[in-house]
Amino acid sequence: MIQEDITPPVINLPKDITMEAAGPEGALVSFEATASDDFSGQVPVTCNPESGSIFPLGTTEVKCSATDAAGNTAQDIIKITVSDTTPPLITCPLDTSIECGQSPDPAITGSASATDVCDSSLDINSSDSIAPGTCSEEKTITRTWTATDDSGNSSRCVQTIEIVDSTTPEIQCNAPSTITPREAPISFTATASDNCAGEPFVEIIGYDCFAFTKKGKRIDKKESCIIKVNGDTIIVVDSGGVDDNITWTVRATDNCGNITETTCSVMVVKPSKP
């Protein structure tokens, strides 16, 4: 009696496979698919996509089939999932310090860069937290950079930006180079500007009045000059006489304690003839 073969082969597939992506194209995945049959023994298995293919990100259903000598066909599927769980590799710009008044914008202080296995166009952004420094114009910016790929994986790095005030104020004497005796009493108020916010404190810390003989000898003229000082202002009550030199020392201190000093001066000259 001839026994009829109506039983399809049995396909043996591995369990569903999950692989980490090796690049933007996905991952190369190999698997073993076999089939056996009661009459035909081992039967070849055809899968689509086949083992050893590059599988894209996401889940792909692989359909496999096997047909025995009697034409009986069996089908089965295996799911292959390629995922991207690897965060980008981020590199922070170097820590730096800038003077107050300078912009802490990344165009000045540097931007982070990042690379990723799968994504060539990463979302890179930053957020700042600010801590006060030792004086009102100084502070520390802690800038956290974050790079995120298309799969939502992210990595972070931290850059520190110190904003310092090491620049001394600039003093303006606000006085002409010469005056005439008849202009007294006359006053001059010194001012100062600073690269940071806040007005520097300005004061006159000393003055002098002198002249020179034709031979170049210095003569003290403080007794003939009448000078008054009021904070940042010098008042020439009496200039003394022609060819007298009146000088005063101005000191400016900014909010961070940076100090600068300069000497201002006027020379007493004869009035111009009408």
UniProtKB/TrEMBL annotation:
It holds the Pfam family HYR. It comes from the Bacteria. The keyword Repeat applies. The keyword Ion transport does not apply. Keywords: Repeat. InterPro entries: HYR_dom, Ig-like_fold. Residues 4-84 form the HYR domain. This is HYR domain-containing protein. It comes from candidate division WS5 bacterium.
